[in-house]
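Extended Data, record L,D-transpeptidase
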Amino acid sequence: MSTHAPRTRIPHDPPAHPAPGRPPGRRPKAVAGALAAACALVLAATGCAATTSAATSTAATGPAAPSGAHPSTASASAAPAVPEPAALADAKVNVAEGATVGVGMPISVTFPRPVPRAERAAVEHWLGVRTEPAVTGAWSWVKDRNLLDGQRVDYRPPAYWKPGTRVTLRVGGQAVRHFSIGRSLTATVDVRTHTMTVTEDGRPDTRIPVIAGRPGLDTWNGTMVVMDKQPKVYMDSRTVGLGDAYHGYYAWAVHTTTSGTYVHQNPNADTYAGRANVTHGCVGLATDGTAERFYRRVIPGDVIRVTGSKDTVEAGNGYGDWNLTWSEWLAHSATRHADGGR
């Protein structure tokens, strides 16, 4: 149940859960048990006010592990000429060691305090990315919805990662993290036809009737990335200024924005899926097993695209990085530099 108000996004679906939104000056409370412990990025739900169940979140993060913890295949090239910034000592990374993620997952590094503009180029130089096969990519400073300017820098290629790519991230002189890119999966939601088409490895194979945000509480438009997922999330409309519109647990919740947008099971979809948009901003799936099947199929990093709606989700609202063109992405880099996957 995501919610948005006209020009103000608030997450949620009718009797369903927290809604994706950006209420003026308000943010839903995210009581994320396992999720909060797992996620290094502080991405509190602002839409469907969410509280995770005891279930495990699938997007574990944290400080990068010392390179001694795992054999490193990171670049053996000489260290940058500039001194290593102190900010890297407390940096956190959004992808867990050894994880397999979807083709849309950016590398996102966050800091407990803003990095001054004068130090950002040095930070980029000391964040090394090596890929097999080689991939061109670049760092870009993103204004995270819940953080201050200078507290988050992301890395992405010009287009989605290629399936099977192996990635090694070096954070400063010691810390190293390894992960890989799984198969390609994109789910495209057309709010005008009330359908979601799932494409895996380039082949559209599933068309699912859905419900989306009703007029005035429209689902975010644009490209989002699965941040994490939980079998059960508590959503409370009171945390996003919608009174008693909804509150309760909603199952098979796939999290796509910090403001609270989810793709989740919604009983209203049993009646309206494929026919009308009636949620507070989230995408709802039927209770006949449809929602659970989609939940079990996706992984963090998979791409969720919404077409035919209104306001485009911002880069820092979850992983909205792909809504920027490559030239726009480079414009927010301190070095204006794209590497070759080193």
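Summary. The first helix runs from residue 33 to 38.
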